[in-house]
Specification:
By secondary structure, this protein is α+β, with helices and mostly antiparallel strands. Helices cover 16% and strands 39% of the residues. The two termini are 27 Å apart.
Length: 397
């Protein structure tokens, strides 16, 4: 059930209204060179994660979404109704410096001065952002009420900008008298509400019991992630070395040591934990990072650790990096550490032995390399689920 939130705002609020802001044990275990490498990597990752968890929360960004009567502001359409004009993002060093009333006047003056800081595109709002609505009216004789309704949204259903669903103004015409206008601020309460669809409605209080709707819109608050689960096929240089050993009698009647691959599959299927360790505030997985920039590189290249998904999960460990060329898909590569049975006691594959001999083996950690392609489990699962649901609905029509 959606959480209903209702709050009334007065024009040019008083200065008191501040902007709120295991490695398994074995009998014949031998410590190989790979074991030390694993300990170094695990130690480094532990240090990295401890720094992440001890880091302070990300600083808030403050974004004002500006709506206006049509035909009033520069470059606005000469139509009935209200429209989205642009947005203003408060500089980081000025956040929280003044109250909401002063900020409202500041944004309004930037609009009148056609300031370049007013951007025409729609902002992407994440859980670290404070989102505000600023509505301009050329004239007003009744109080306004701003109502919000919150509901979760699916990752696959989320556009990367707020939606354009606005209702027409009821009983108001376009008047080109901006000096007589007033602006109405509304806190959209987006802070710390990732994966939330916030629908806002601005209504005019006509009488004690009736209201008229002026504006309705939707903002999608994106979540920021520090970790994601990815999985997919990878090729490992150790896959051919994981063998079982036995004896057989050859054509000459001799007993020889023979081996066969433990896993006949050409690839492994690991499950990886991907860490957005290089992103300051975490990653918005609904937005494609920019190419050819340092910030985009930091978001696309990330460390990963993993285990096999089906074949001996606790005997196969992976550590490396992923590169995300497109949303939800990663190219992965790194080191594969596998606990593998090998012949012991000087025996070798194909060696002639006495009848009844059982080849002695010992388990060693070997180090190899891997490369593969993986997908974000949550994103792909959400997309797939949405497509299945859509197909079923279309089939029932």
């Amino acid at each position: 059930m959606a959480l209903q939130i209702r709050r009334a705002h007065q024009f040019f609020s008083s200065p008191q209204d501040l902007i709120a802001l295991s490695t398994s044990n074995g009998t014949n275990r031998e410590k190989g060179p790979g074991t030390y490498s694993i300990l170094r990597i695990v130690g480094g990752l532990t240090l990295c994660l401890s720094q992440l968890f001890s880091a302070p929360n990300a600083e808030s960004a403050e974004k004002w979404l500006i709506y206006s009567e049509a035909g009033v502001f520069p470059d606005s359409p000469n139509l009935l109704g209200h429209f989205y004009y642009g947005y203003y993002e408060v500089p980081e060093n000025e956040i929280g410096a003044i109250d909401i009333s002063a900020r409202t006047h500041e944004v309004y003056q930037k609009i009148l001065n056609k300031d370049k800081e007013i951007k025409k595109a729609k902002p992407i709002i994440t859980r670290k952002d404070d989102g505000y609505l600023l509505l301009y009216l050329s004239g007003m004789d009744k109080p306004l009420i701003c109502t919000k309704a919150e509901a979760a949204f699916k990752q696959s259903d989320a556009p990367v900008v707020p939606s354009d669903t606005l209702s027409n103004v009821k009983g108001i015409t376009s008047i080109n008298q901006e000096q007589n206008g007033k602006v109405f601020p509304c806190d959209l309460e987006t802070r710390d509400k990732g994966n939330t669809r916030i629908t806002f409605t601005v209504e005019k209080q006509l009488t004690d019991t009736t209201k008229g709707e002026l504006l309705k819109g939707t903002v999608l608050v994106h979540e920021l992630y520090r970790f994601r689960i990815i999985s997919g096929p990878v090729f490992s240089s150790l896959i051919t070395k994981n063998r079982t050993y036995s004896t057989l009698v050859n054509a000459g009647g001799q007993t020889v040591i023979s081996s066969s691959r433990t896993n006949d599959a050409p690839v492994n299927f690991p499950l990886f934990l991907k860490c957005y360790c290089f992103s300051k505030d975490g990653r918005d997985i609904l937005v494609n990072p920019p190419y050819l920039t340092w910030e985009g590189f930091r978001q696309r290249v990330n460390p990963i650790v993993g285990i096999n998904l089906v074949d001996n999960p606790f005997k196969n460990f992976y550590a490396g990096f992923s590169f995300e060329p497109v949303l939800g898909v990663d190219i992965v590569a790194g080191a594969h550490f596998a606990k593998i049975d090998q012949l012991a006691g000087g025996f070798s594959d194909g060696q002639v032995v006495a009848a009844g001999t059982q080849p002695p083996t010992t388990s060693k950690f070997l180090t190899g390399g891997f490369v593969g392609v993986t997908a974000d489990v949550g994103v792909i699962g959400s997309w797939l689920g949405s497509q299945i649901t859509k197909t079923i609905k279309e089939g029932l029509r």
